[in-house]
Design a protein that fits this description.
With 288 residues, the chain is an alpha/beta fold. The protein has one domain: Rossmann fold. Helix content is 32%, strand content 21%. The protein is built from eight helices and eleven strands. It has a seven-stranded mixed sheet, sandwiched between helices. It starts with 14 loop residues before the first strand and ends with a strand.
Length: 288
């Protein structure tokens, strides 16, 4: 199958469809195996949260606040609590991770978000002031000025990740850490196929978020991406998953999701870290 889009890793234009959604196909590169959406997303898409703060409904607030809270807390307990420094949350969305960071005043925490609506929400509803509404090239921060940069559920939305990752690399201090969270296609694709088989193709199902999630990474491809930006050391961590399933608060579905999480962690370590079917929590370190 030949298409106009090319693979970000090998520039091949030969793909195979692996999943069909209503508005776009999900394809696998025949040359290197990278999986991505055929949806044409602008590089600087800023309308995810709608046109006004009133467009942000309670389901969205739940997803980015309550559903993420335990994950954010575990991250802070591991990397933030016993240290200090300067942190940038890139693509900070509604600001709930920065709200968690406000519990650690020894950290100078900043956010960057391209959506004016999300920035307005974070400032007015959460009282957060250190958020820059800007494209990355216009941030104005000095080189090597951050100890940690986080990307929570961001990298999968970016059609061309290279220029952004290089900019973030330059903003990190020597030995600084870039930390990102993104879904793992090795588990997301089988779940999407099973869901489609059981329920059919429906507009109200999320499947693989074909019109939002442009790239679908595995442990191998996210490692490849970060190493090509010259990060020196890549480490995979494990934190509890988002406590919601495609927007649902179903206790049964959340229980099954957590059961999968604990099983995947057990598999990861019992396989000597060779099999990773958990969400991808990745720490990438800049050289000294």
């Amino acid at each position: 199958m030949s298409m106009e889009k090319t693979c970000i890793f090998c520039n091949s234009s030969e793909f195979k469809v692996v999943f069909r959604e209503i508005k776009a196909d999900i394809v696998r590169c025949k040359k290197c195996g990278h999986i991505f959406s055929t949806w044409n997303q602008p590089q600087d898409y800023d309308a995810y949260f709608g046109n006004t703060v009133e467009d942000i409904n309670q389901e969205t607030i739940f997803w980015f606040s309550d559903a993420h809270r335990l994950m954010y807390n575990q991250f802070c307990q591991r990397f933030i609590k016993k240290s200090s420094g300067r942190l940038l949350d890139f693509g900070c969305g509604l600001g709930y991770f920065l709200k968690e960071m406000s519990n650690f005043p020894q950290w100078d925490s900043w956010g960057c978000e391209i959506s004016p609506v999300a920035v307005n929400f974070a400032k007015k509803r959460l009282g957060l002031n250190k958020i820059v509404c800007s494209k990355i090239q216009n941030l104005g921060f000095a080189k090597e000025s951050f100890d940690i940069i986080t990307l929570w559920d961001v990298i999968e939305y970016i059609p061309d990740p290279w220029p952004i990752l290089y900019c973030l690399y330059n903003l990190l201090k020597p030995k600084g850490m870039l930390f990102l969270h993104t879904p793992n296609i090795h588990i997301q694709l089988p779940i999407a196929r099973l869901t489609k088989m059981l329920f059919g193709l429906r507009k109200d199902f999320h499947y693989l978020e074909a019109t939002d999630h442009i790239h679908h990474y595995s442990a191998d491809t996210i490692t490849k991406l970060l190493k090509q930006v010259e990060f020196e050391r890549i480490v995979f961590h494990h934190f509890v998953p988002i406590q919601g399933v495609a927007g649902s608060k179903s206790k049964t579905l959340i229980f099954l999701k957590n059961l999968w999480y604990y099983s995947s962690v057990l598999l990861f370590y019992s396989s000597l870290k060779k099999i990773n079917l958990d969400n991808l929590f990745v720490a990438a370190y800049k050289s000294a």
